Amino acid sequence: MKLLRTLPTTRLLLLLGAVLAAVGAAAAIAIAAVDGGSGSPPAPEPLANAIHDALTATPPDGVTARVQFTNNLLPTGALTGNVGSALMSGADGRLWVTNDGRGRIELQSDAGDVQIVWSKSDLSVYDASSNTDYHLALPADTSTSAAQGSPPSVDEIGGFLTKLAQHASVSDAQPGVSAGEGSYTVSVSPTENGGLIGSAELAWDALNGTPLRIAIYPKGGSAPALSLEATDISFGSVSGSDVDISPPPGAKVVDLSAPTGGGSSHAADVTGLDAVQAAVPFQVVAPATLNGLARGEVRLVGSSDSQSVLVTYGEGLGTVVVVERAADSQGSASGMLGSVPTVSIGGVSAHELATELGTVLEWQHGGVAFVLGGSVSPADAEAAAGALG
Length: 389
What we know:
Layout: H1 2-6, H2 9-30, H3 47-55, E1 62-71, H4 86-89, E2 91-98, E3 103-108, E4 114-118, E5 122-127, E6 132-137, H5 145-148, H6 154-164, E7 168-170, E8 174-178, E9 181-190, E10 197-205, E11 211-218, E12 226-235, E13 252-255, H7 273-279, E14 289-290, E15 293-301, E16 308-313, E17 320-326, E18 342-345, E19 348-354, E20 359-365, E21 368-374, H8 378-388
Parallel strand pairs: 6-13
Antiparallel strand pairs: 1-2, 1-12, 2-3, 3-4, 4-5, 5-6, 7-9, 8-9, 9-10, 10-11, 11-12, 14-15, 15-16, 16-17, 17-21, 18-19, 19-20, 20-21
Helix pairs in contact: 3-6
């Protein structure tokens, strides 16, 4: 928690973009099959059947692809510093995935490439523009093949889609062509508590289920805020040398892994306003409602040397999250959002990062440092922050 709190905003956004790219690539190998697509749109098929076919496909020896990463999340001038990075500006690149859970995405830019490398146990994101490697140890998979069970049936998938339709608008499986492969595309749009998120789209190979494109659109927008798509793809064995690479000597290493062992005492089980207030040395600000949203969870997070209070308001994708901690002794309002513009909230200067999908504010007041974020407009975020003081 202490590391994430002090990590510069640009670095946090780089990591989030990298995780998005890595998750999309990992999903490809999880449900891919040996044969490629036909290059022409497939016959129409019910969504439940198309999903079932993808989930029951046989994994291939490997996947190789050209990819395009689009990032329209940040408005021009929203950040200073490392904006030339491939993850901040978007870039073309390449992807390799083996059939044993290893993979790599290389995004290329004039400022230097970004290398995202993963296995079943580790995720590494190396950004050449800052010569920094972000490392995350992944939790061990303790499940067994027997515990995982067989893929859901068509009827079970249909039942899930029926329940999902109570909260979101789900399209049919739309036939088309993606990366030269016959594909299906599904779009999901929240119908309640969706915040600023308009929809999410996923396209996959109609013959083998390989994901070919994932995109998130802002509400009312026709262009994706974030997307990762294959522009050319092939199936076959992938050499270990394509996925097993290390950062160059001298790279700065930032370890984002959760601490293990040791004597740190974690406060994950301290919940409820009264119990949390008794556990921290500062006055917790958690009104029953915030800008019309009802208070949800109040929880103590972090280790004993870096405790913060997390408070949620509202439900669904439109939830607003507030993190509070004791302000530093200098009372500086420049924290992890120090590189973004400031706004005035009730006479207090706050750093504001406004994106197409949400807003984050950071400020200090009354000996407490606040971070407020959610998939809400800047006006709504500022109104909520003003109510906290």
